[in-house]
Amino acid sequence: MSDSLRDQYLIPSQPYYRAVHDEVTLYEAAYSVRMPVMLKGPTGCGKTRFVEYMAWKLQKPLITVACNEDMTASDLVGRFLLDANGTRWQDGPLTVAARIGAICYLDEVVEARQDTTVVIHPLTDHRRVLPLEKKGELVSAHPDFQIVISYNPGYQSLMKDLKQSTKQRFGALDFDYPKPEIEAEIIAHESGIGKDLADKLAQIAQRSRNLKGHGLDEGISTRLLVYAGQLVAKGIDAQAACRMALVRPLTDDPDMRDTLDAAINTYF
Ligand SMILES: Nc1ncnc2c1ncn2[C@@H]1O[C@H](COP(=O)(O)OP(=O)(O)OP(=O)(O)O)[C@@H](O)[C@H]1O
Ligand SMILES: [Mg+2]
Known about the structure:
Layout: H1 3-8, H2 23-32, E1 37-40, H3 47-58, E2 62-66, H4 73-77, E3 78-83, E4 86-91, H5 93-100, E5 103-107, H6 114-117, E6 129-132, E7 137-140, E8 146-151, H7 164-167, E9 171-174, H8 180-191, H9 195-209, H10 222-233, H11 238-247, H12 254-265
Parallel strand pairs: 1-8, 1-9, 2-5, 5-8
Antiparallel strand pairs: 3-4, 6-7
Bound molecules: adenosine-5'-triphosphate (ATP) and magnesium ion.
């Protein structure tokens, strides 16, 4: 397999990742034995950034696949394509990752149907192989290959859950929004705003998270806080930035919007 393909998937420069607990050490230990890893946590809390950082730190290529319910096993492993010279096999992203020794990050894996998800089973146990049934090839995973999946617990219905036989192939790391001091540090770094403002944004998020289950499905994510900071850094007034980045995306309910707007007005 050509090195240029591998190089294409390397993370070129160090991504900013603020470690929150011992996730870096735990992940490194898991990677060292090629344990498949599941990252669990709400939207916008740093899961994708963490994988990018770890891929960079370990100097391994990273191949990310956004999963959805229309995805088939062929979308992961590959398919025959028709071209001028007849048919040609094209590896899917999972196969490419297994061949080049990448970290394969399956984002939102519960969205995929269970008959799609099972193709990762032989890659995530001692066999470390991927059968390409249509092609009649058994790919042995490169020694560097590892699977990482992400998962938002609680968002999916009971119908949409991973089978136990899938879940129990992974070690899992819990992610959550960090405590306000750390979150403020992240917001300040990512948006370039000052500490005072970043602190206020983190506190607003904290308050919104208390409304989870009381009219909000989810509190304001770190991602949205970074957006708000970026708008302010562009000269937008803080209240307007918060309305656009923190309140409007979160809910359509007029009462809840008023509640959040009022909370914001107490800070600015
Ligand atoms: N610990 C962290 N260190 C650095 N940046 C962070 C951290 N946590 C969150 N962020 C910031 O929040 C943004 C959103 O994080 P990320 O995209 O990793 O979320 P996610 O958990 O993958 O969300 P989703 O489940 O929606 O994909 C990042 O782009 C980054 O700016
Ligand atoms: Mg993500």
